[in-house]
Amino acid sequence: MRRTHDGGPRATLAALPWLAPAAVLILGVVLFPAGVMVFNSTRDISISGVDKGPAGFANYVEVFSFPYFWPILGRTVVWVVVVVGVTVVLSLGIAQLLDKAFPGRRLVRLVVIIPWAASVVMTTMVVYYGLEPYFGIINKFLVDIGLVGTPEGYGWTRNPDTAFAWAVVVAIFVSLPFTSYTILAGLATIPAETLEAAKVDGAGPVRSYLTVVLPQLRGALSVAVIINIINVFNSLPILKVMTGSIPGYDADTVMTMIFKYIQNQHKVDVASALSVVAFVIVLVIVAVYVRVVRPMREV
Amino acid sequence: MTIGVTQGGIRRRRYTSDQVPLGRVVLRMLGGLVVLVVFVLPYTIMFFGSVKTKAQIRSVDPSYFPREWHWENYLTMWSTPETPLVQNLISTIVIASCATLLALVVAVPAAYYTARFRFPGRFAFLALVITTQMLQPAVLTSGLFRQFVALGMHDTWAAMILTNAAFNLAFTIWILHSFFASIPREIDEAAQLDGAGRLTVLLRVNLPLVWPGLVTAIVFTFVAAWNEFAASLVILSTAGNQPLSVALTKFVGQYETSWQYVFGVSVVAIVPVVVLFMLIEKRLVGGLATGGVK
């Protein structure tokens, strides 16, 4: 990183017209709302949206004293760890396959893109429908192969635990394309010679994968993991569709809870407090991850 | 500030199939087939569902394949009582198109200038951009909502156009920055010797050269805005203003969901963006090498 400051203040002034629109958009629609949110988290806002004055930390107290808060936080950790973990492992396999030459590879590569481009809401709705008792196609399949006893089905989307489990499956499914392509991009940068060299040294496929390929994928994997953590933590639509109609709080994550505060209880102040907590959690996870893995190449 | 862009510079390792034992090729094809089936399956269910009648799709003895093909669903679905789907489709198109255009208009000059010039504040600006890459509308929804209410802009397309443009700006600037940086400065200087102004140099000389980056940025922003859910859910409250992603969730938990319509609309909404995305498939690997894609 070179910091050559040629020009001084006049150069900054000359740059302003080029950068100002972008800076205004970022400040006005990203940073300012963030400030509004932090401010609101310390205010007492009525259900109709009227600011009734300072509330100190009352909103935070309400967030943390909510009896379901710690189970929800625990479930959020499970949600992120399982979804990101399984996604990365499966994507390593998919990327490895898509990197190899075989007839039809082009088609498979194109098909892997579909869940990436398709709306997550719509993908989740298909699975939700498929799991419906009696008429759901996935349910019918499970009955036909004998995994489920009656056509009434298991009520997958009626029970918080199973609905949550299926939401995890959908979340993994929609995360696979981006992750596989990122790893694929990493694989493409590994010089063929290093693999040849490993082969000459007598390394088998498993050993050359572990000692040559995987270490070189470090950068790509780090990017994939960080962005997946942010995406999965912030994910709302999958759980909203899968578990949203189940009463209670036994399938919620921090993100769905924020929206329950906003939409069902109309407590924007408490929602803001939980959003701030959520934001800090993401920040801490990313910071710890960056510190431990040191993925950032020089930018 | 250099980003390791490897546009087209990535050397693909090509194996001619006669170097690989036949058994291994067959094994790869089998693997490919499994991946193919898994990724296509949900959308096949969606498509088959879209041409069934309500009686068929809600039958207690459902069939995997449609027994009859009711293409008329694609005409009748637009007048379903749950939500004004035509307006929802228009909302989705307007919001996604305008957000993409706005993001582009704002990002191009910033990306160009930061790639070409060094000046005090350049690092601060790029740091600001990369910070927003870590943020998503979902976590800021309550703040966005309150801000737009205060401005009297809640429940308007404009609010969602701004939101989608702002949250996709980081990626757009980032990818264009790396493309502009790969164009030799001499080209600019030559054009300026010919008497072209800065803006002309950008629009006439540079922009045609970075079109692959432009296309990638456009597709990514468009698809992200097309599918955005969390902020729209809270900010857009009138049924007619909502995009399809929000509107379709209203079908869940209904006593008698018209699933065939949900799927028909989904197919209509998914096919164009999937085709767009597939068009840039070759760019994905190069684009992701920059590590900036959300």
Question: Would you summarize the structure shown here?
Answer:
With 299 residues, chain A is an all-alpha fold. Chain A has helices at 9-40, 58-65, 69-99, 105-117, 120-130, 137-144, 160-188, 192-200, 205-216, 218-233, 237-243, 254-263, 268-293; strands spanning 43-45, 51-54. Chain A has a domain at 66-266: MetI-like fold.
Index terms:
heterodimer, A: 299 residues, mainly alpha, MetI-like fold, two-stranded antiparallel ribbon, globular, B: 294 residues, 0% strand, disordered N terminus
Residue share in helix of chain A: over 70%
* CATH fold title of chain B: MetI-like fold
Indicate the structural class of chain B: mainly alpha
User: What gross morphology of chain A would you assign?
Assistant: globular
Nearest-integer average pLDDT of chain A: 89
Low-pLDDT runs of chain A: 1-5
Strand order of the largest sheet of chain A: 1-2
Give the topology string of chain B: H per helix, E per strand. HHHHHHHHHHHHHH
Strand content of chain B: under 5%
Structural class of chain A: mainly alpha
Tell how many strands the DSSP assignment of chain B holds: 0
Radius of gyration of chain A: 24 Å
The ordered string of helix (H) and strand (E) elements of chain A is HEEHHHHHHHHHHHH
The CATH architecture of the domain at 66-266 in chain A is Orthogonal Bundle
The DSSP helix count of chain A reads 13
Characterize the structure shown.
The complex is a heterodimer of chains A (299) and B (294). Chain A has helices spanning 9-40, 58-65, 69-99, 105-117, 120-130, 137-144, 160-188, 192-200, 205-216, 218-233, 237-243, 254-263, 268-293; strands spanning 43-45, 51-54. With 299 residues, chain A is mainly α. Chain A has a domain at 66-266: MetI-like fold, CATH 1.10.3720. Chain A starts with 8 loop residues before the first helix and ends in a 6-residue tail after the last helix. With 294 residues, chain B is mostly helical. Chain B has 14 helices and no strands. Chains A and B meet through α1, α3, α4, α5 and α6 of A and α1, α4, α5, α6 and α7 of B.
